[in-house]
Inverse folding.
């Protein structure tokens, strides 16, 4: 301990004798810190990925789409078996192989934990990062599907006849509407009505309209509100609406 203290004292005495070395001791490490901070980047992006989907289910396709849309991976192709994936790794065409086993979709539907197989190119030093944090979000079970929700659709431009025509096919005579699309009972449409008079307690059309929308949402227990063509409302064309 005494020898170490003597060496520290000696170094400080040396700095007092040669003050030109002080900037080098400070500027050098700072420059390296800034340069390496931008140059050394271990973020994993656009990793070439080969897919082996042995399940061919809706769930496996959804998982593939999550990988493709994540930005971490770039799907280069697919092969039927894991054995056929080896040349892709050897030749550097892919760095990661994702193997989705048969029964993956059934396991998810039965609330069982499915197992995925990931094969990685061990010659790439960045691949340990893939085995850790990058792949972990994809192991999480997808959020449960949301059932049908009641929707209120408000279009400030189309009236009822125009809306019906949009979702129908005009037959040969050019006048009659055929093949009318049957909307779900959960789909409600806002219809524009206004007689030009302000309701009691309101001093602007905007306040009256917004409150009318709130009332309809509460009245019909609406979970999703869609407003289309709102720019059609101009100071000269105000209206409130009813839902049907």
């Amino acid at each position: 301990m005494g020898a170490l203290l003597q060496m520290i004292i000696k170094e400080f005495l040396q700095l007092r004798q040669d003050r030109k070395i002080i900037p080098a001791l400070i500027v050098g490490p700072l420059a390296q810190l800034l340069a390496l901070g931008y140059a050394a980047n271990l973020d994993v992006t656009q990793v070439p990925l080969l897919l082996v989907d042995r399940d061919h289910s809706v769930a496996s396709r959804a998982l593939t789409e999550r990988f493709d849309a994540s930005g971490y991976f770039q799907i280069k192709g697919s092969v039927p078996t894991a054995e056929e994936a080896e040349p892709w790794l050897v030749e550097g065409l892919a760095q990661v192989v994702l193997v989705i086993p048969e029964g993956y979709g059934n396991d998810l539907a039965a609330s069982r934990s499915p197992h995925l197989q990931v094969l990685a190119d061990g010659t790439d030093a960045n691949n340990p990062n893939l085995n850790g944090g990058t792949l972990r979000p994809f192991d999480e079970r997808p959020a449960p599907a949301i059932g049908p929700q009641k929707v209120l659709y408000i279009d400030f431009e189309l009236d009822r006849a125009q809306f019906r025509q949009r979702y129908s096919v005009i037959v040969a005579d050019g006048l009659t509407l055929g093949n009318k699309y049957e909307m779900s009972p959960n789909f409600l449409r806002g219809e524009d009505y206004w007689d030009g008079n302000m309701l009691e307690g309101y001093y602007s059309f905007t306040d009256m309209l917004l409150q009318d929308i709130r009332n309809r949402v509460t009245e019909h227990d609406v979970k999703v509100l869609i407003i289309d063509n709102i720019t059609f409302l101009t100071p000269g064309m105000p209206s409130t609406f009813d839902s049907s």
About this structure: Strands lie at 47-53, 73-78, 96-100, 117-120, 151-155, 169-170, 177-178, 187-193, 224-228, 240-243. The first strand starts at residue 47 and ends at 53.
